[in-house]
Structure formats: structure tokens, C-alpha cells
From TrEMBL:
InterPro entries: DNA/RNA_non-sp_Endonuclease_sf, Endo_G_ENPP1-like_dom, ENDOD1, ENPP1-3/EXOG-like_nuc-like, His-Me_finger_sf. SMART domains: NUC (SM00477). SUPFAM superfamilies: His-Me finger endonucleases. This is ENPP1-3/EXOG-like endonuclease/phosphodiesterase domain-containing protein. The chain crosses the membrane at residues 212-232, 238-271, 292-313, 325-351. It comes from Phrynocephalus forsythii. Keywords: Membrane, Transmembrane, Transmembrane helix.
Length: 366
């Protein structure tokens, strides 16, 4: 909620369509809260002091309205609605033809509507109070209250769940409200005044003190602000330099460690290579020695093996030689027989041919 003094001069036509605090000064009326601040706490209580929640009320009317609403809500409505857990309240005013300073309408009557709906049962009721100080709150149904407002007005949606209304609970509420109305109002003896409800003389005095205070304090405040700014900037510069120094030191240390690790790694790799080369040379020499020994040993062994195996090879070759000799003799004998047979056949052929050619044919006739 922004105070009125902070927006004065920054909003065009401020006060043309709404009431201002200045409208209440020396008017004979006070800013009567339709929704009393005593029903709320903390920020919600502060919000009730807005001018949209206020209407012009004569001091006696204001005090009685506060007392009646507070007692009605605290002793009648809330106790019959889960201590106010499911209770909904709407308050308002119907304007009259009378105007405060020819601008702000003075209410003809004030009204309060209550709706309780816990999900299973519901009840609703309305209250109306004429602006005359001697009048008390009158209870009436929600429908009757809506008829006294603008045509077509509906305070609660679905008339506060009218289909689930509980006449028994409503009767208890009306009975407790009747007891409260029968009591004599006890207006507040000491009432908190919102800062916006101060008189004009108090405001002027506060304004002069404020200007005087600002005249002396503002330069000191600006000087203090400059000093603090310089301190902050120097601190930021020192912190920046320290950060740069620390960053440089850390970078140098990291580079140094990296170099040492690189050298150590190179030395380790070189040592490993030397070790591998030594082992490779030893293995090569051992292999050469073994090969020489093998070749030296192989020469006499081969000679001895050849000498030992010679008789066996010789004896093994005799049957093969004999077989070849027998095969040769048999082949020669067969060759002689074949040649003789061929010669005999040739002679026989020649003799037969000559005999057929030169000897006369002899025919035997019977």
C-alpha cells in the first residue's frame, strides 16, 4: 500500500474520482472503516486503512459501528462457523444525497453480509444500519439485503449455496445477534488513529520538523553516503588486487608443479627405455650364444647319426636291389620269348603267303 503523500503530484487528476485525506479535514466526519481494522492483524490490518475501505461517518456512528461489527463477528458469526474458518464477510454502504464538502457522498446506511459454507451445510444473513447514530443493526435475509442495493445485485455466488442452507444454524446465529443488539454499546475509549487521519495543524508541524530535519541531516547523509561509497570502492579495489595476486601466485605454483611433474615423467620414461634396451641387448646376446652352441653341437651329431644309420640304409637297400635284378632278368626273358614268337609268326606269314601264290590250287570233287 503506497501512502497518499508519495503519489501526490505524480498522478494526474488525483482526487477527481476518489476521496482524499484532505476531504476529511475540518469536515465534521471521520474516515469510518467499513471493515474494521480490529478484525485483522499485521499487514491485513494496515490494508484496512485505505480510503477505498472508508466512508464519511460521524464520530458516534463510527464508534457504535465498530463495536457492533466486532461483537457481532466475534461472538455470533465466527463461533457458529468453525471459529471463522469458513466465514466470508462483505461490507458496504449505500450513498445518500448528502455530500461531504460537495464531493464525497455520506452513506444513507451501512450493511454487512455474512456467508458460512463448510462444504456440507451453509447459512447466510445480512445486517443493515441506518446512518443515524441512534439506530442499531437490523438483521435481514440475504435476498432482502440485495433488494436494498443496486438492481440485480448479488452479494454471494448462488446466494451462499442456498440449496444447502441450515435453518437451525441460522436461528442460532440470529438469537446470538439479538442478544448483542440488546446490549448497550460500549464505544472504544482509546482508538488508534492511522497516520493519514492526523489534523492539518499536526501535519504542518510535522512538515516543518521534517524540512528542518532534512535541511541538517541530508548533507550529512550525502557525505556519509559518499564516504561509504569511497570505502566500498577502495575495498572492492583491494579485494580485486588480492584476487589478482592470489590468482597469479596460484598460476605460478601450478606452472611450477606442472614443470616438475613433466621433468620427472620424462626421466622416468628415459629410465624405462634404458632398462628395456639393456634387457633387449642381454636377450639378443643370449640368443646368439645359444644359436652358436646349437650349430656347434649339430655338426658331430649329424655325422654320428649318418655313420650309425649307414648300415641300416645299406641293408635296407639290398632287397630292393635284388628285386630290381630279378625284375630285369624276368623282363629280359620275356623280351626274348616275345622276339622269338614274333620271328616265328613272321616266318609263318611269309611261307603261307608264298605257298598261296606259287602252289596250284587243288580242288577235291566227289
Amino acid at each position: 500500500m503506497m501512502p497518499e503523500s508519495e503519489v501526490t503530484g505524480s498522478v494526474d487528476n488525483l482526487g477527481a474520482n476518489q476521496a482524499l485525506t484532505a476531504d476529511y479535514v475540518d469536515s465534521g466526519y471521520e474516515r469510518g472503516l467499513l471493515n474494521p481494522s480490529s478484525l485483522h492483524k499485521d499487514d491485513q490490518q494496515i490494508a484496512t486503512y485505505t480510503l477505498t475501505n472508508a466512508v464519511p461517518m460521524a464520530p458516534p456512528l463510527q464508534e457504535i459501528w465498530y463495536w457492533e461489527v466486532e461483537n457481532l463477528v466475534g461472538r455470533s458469526l465466527a463461533p457458529h462457523c468453525g471459529n471463522g474458518k469458513d466465514l466470508y464477510l462483505i461490507s458496504g454502504a449505500v450513498p445518500s444525497a448528502l455530500r461531504m464538502k460537495g464531493k464525497v457522498a455520506v452513506p444513507e446506511f451501512l450493511w454487512l453480509a455474512a456467508c458460512c459454507d463448510d462444504g456440507s451445510e451453509a447459512w447466510s444473513v445480512g445486517f443493515m444500519k441506518q446512518a443515524a447514530a441512534g439506530n442499531r443493526l437490523e438483521d435481514l435475509s440475504l435476498e432482502e439485503l440485495e433488494k436494498k442495493l443496486l438492481p440485480g445485485a448479488q452479494v454471494f455466488k448462488n446466494n451462499c449455496s442456498q440449496d444447502r442452507h441450515s435453518p437451525e444454524k441460522l436461528e442460532l446465529v440470529l438469537q446470538s445477534a439479538k442478544k448483542i443488539r440488546a446490549e448497550k454499546p460500549v464505544p472504544h475509549q482509546s482508538k488508534k488513529t492511522h497516520p493519514s487521519q492526523q489534523t492539518s495543524s499536526e501535519k504542518e508541524e510535522c512538515g516543518m520538523l521534517k524540512k528542518l530535519f532534512c535541511f541538517f541531516i541530508t548533507p550529512l547523509f550525502k557525505l556519509l553516503k559518499c564516504v561509504l561509497y569511497l570505502i566500498v570502492m577502495v575495498g572492492k579495489s583491494i579485494i580485486h588486487l588480492l584476487c589478482q595476486l592470489i590468482q597469479t601466485i596460484v598460476g605460478g605454483v601450478c606452472t611450477f608443479i606442472k614443470g616438475i611433474l613433466s621433468v620427472l615423467l620424462t626421466v622416468f620414461v628415459d629410465l624405462a627405455r634404458v632398462g628395456v634396451s639393456i634387457l633387449n641387448g642381454i636377450a639378443t646376446n643370449i640368443y646368439s650364444v645359444l644359436m652358436i652352441i646349437y650349430r656347434i653341437v649339430c655338426v658331430p651329431v649329424n655325422v654320428i647319426v649318418d655313420i650309425i644309420s649307414f648300415p641300416f640304409y645299406t641293408l635296407g637297400a639290398i632287397p630292393a636291389v635284388l628285386r630290381d635284378i630279378v625284375s630285369g632278368i624276368g623282363g629280359l626273358f620275356l623280351l626274348v620269348i616275345d622276339a622269338t614268337t614274333a620271328v616265328v609268326k613272321c616266318i609263318n606269314y611269309v611261307v603261307s603267303h608264298l605257298a598261296k601264290k606259287f602252289l596250284p590250287k587243288v580242288s577235291f570233287e566227289l
